[in-house]
Amino acid sequence: MNIAQEKVDDLNAVVKITIAPEDYNPRVEKALKEQAKKANLPGFRKGMVPVGHIKRMYGKSILVEEINNMLNENISKHLTDNQVEVLGQPLPVMDDAEYKWDNTDSFEFKYELGLAPAVDVEVTSKDKFTHYNVKADEETLAARIKNIRKSYGKMSNPEVSAEGDVLYAELTQLSPDGSVFEGGITSTGSVRLDLVTDKKILKSLVGLKKDDVVDIDIQKTFDNNEAVIAKLLNISEEDAKELKSKFKVTVKNVNRLEEADLNQEFFDKIFGAGVVSDEAGFTAKITEEVEAMFKQDADRKLQNDIYTQLTEQSKMQLPDEFLRKWLKATNEKLSDEELEQGYADFAKNLKWTLIENKIIKDNDIKIEYKDVFELAKARLDAQFKMYSPQALPEDQLAQYTANFLQEKENANRIFDEVKALKVFDYIKSVATLNEKEIAYNKFIELK
């Protein structure tokens, strides 16, 4: 067998593999004998089928299979042994060569390679980034406190509706002339006033009592939110998207979720016995938790800024033509239009991966299982806290984490996240970070 690599340019190469009969015949003969031992054919006892008979029946398919196996094994070995860094996978060059496939042919196969470029990015103290220290503004903090108090509040049924209430009502589809649409949609559900985006319509839904009736434009009411409309009317989101009718709303009941009182029972329920004893302590604790979440947002902003700056300042070129061909070959449903629309982002992400890999290699950065486990646990803990401020017991959270990481897709995703975080940590230790304090409502306006 002969393997030769020809350089096309700095980013492309072709590998030629020549396989002679003396290379593949021993493997083919072995495969034929193994097939003969397993064959169960009429007229022969099992395991006693002559090899010649197997060769006449299956010789060509076995030959093709063994040739393919040899190609896969040897091209991988060639790339490894010669430390050839490629992007994507080798692509076979299709030609018009005709072979007899009778164990006497010599075969020549060609593969295109997309070569990884040299990474030209080096992080130093000259690279400058802004790291934001995000503080809770009064409006954001008040909204968070209100949500927590409602989560532990109680339901009441006031006579008259107010903003933030829920109207339990019957909704009946109307014709353009305002009459009930015969055979139209009729549904009984909960109209959440906090989801009503149109101020005029919201005003018409405030001050209603049981049995009051009001007409609303359903799309305008919820700003064309198909998910909300579909759930309210018990229809599909596709149907909700096309729905243009007005609806008659007949109030059956007014529901109000009262905020929990700021007392010791409430404080203990959220934070544990005696941790918080007054409103000031409660506000301080919520502020601390909210700003901890903001820190994650600030870290993501910094990471995105680093990613954008380093990939944009890199001058490395990619084998774009090869990569486009490879993407099409490995994604049969990918249209030319979709490829062109998404290629720029793909190329940018690929450049970042090359930058990541160089930083990891150059600085001997290690990724251990405990790193993956701890990050997965932190992510799950944050998810649970979205539904309840009270933390899960440590042993229960650890068990959830272990189960979560048993899924290969989850484990790979968290591994990649750990890898990215370690690279960002290195960059932050080398680059110059300018600390800047900013209120959350101003921070979210940043690009």
Task: Report on this structure.
- With 447 residues, the chain is of the alpha+beta class.
- The chain contains 15 helices and eleven strands.
- Strands 6, 7, 8, 9 and 10 form a five-stranded antiparallel beta sheet that branches. It has a four-stranded antiparallel beta sheet with strand order 1-2-4-3, with helices on both faces.
- α10 packs across α11.
- The longest helix is centred in the middle third of the chain and has 35 residues.
- The chain is extended.
- The two termini are 57 Å apart.
Could you write a compact summary of the structure shown?
With 447 residues, the chain is an alpha+beta fold. 51% of the residues lie in helices and 19% in strands. It contains 15 helices and eleven strands.
List keywords for this structure.
alpha+beta, 15 helices, 447 residues, 11 strands
Number of helices in the DSSP assignment: 15
Q: How far from one another are the termini?
A: 57 Å
- Portion of residues in beta strands equals 15-25%
* Uncertain parts: none
- Order of helix and strand elements from N to C terminus: EEHHEEEHEEEHEHHHEHHHHHHHEH
Major β-sheet, in short? 5 strands, antiparallel
Global shape: extended
| Strand tally | 11
- The chain-level structural class is alpha+beta
What is the quaternary state of this protein? Answer: single chain
**Could you report the average pLDDT, rounded to the nearest whole number?**
91
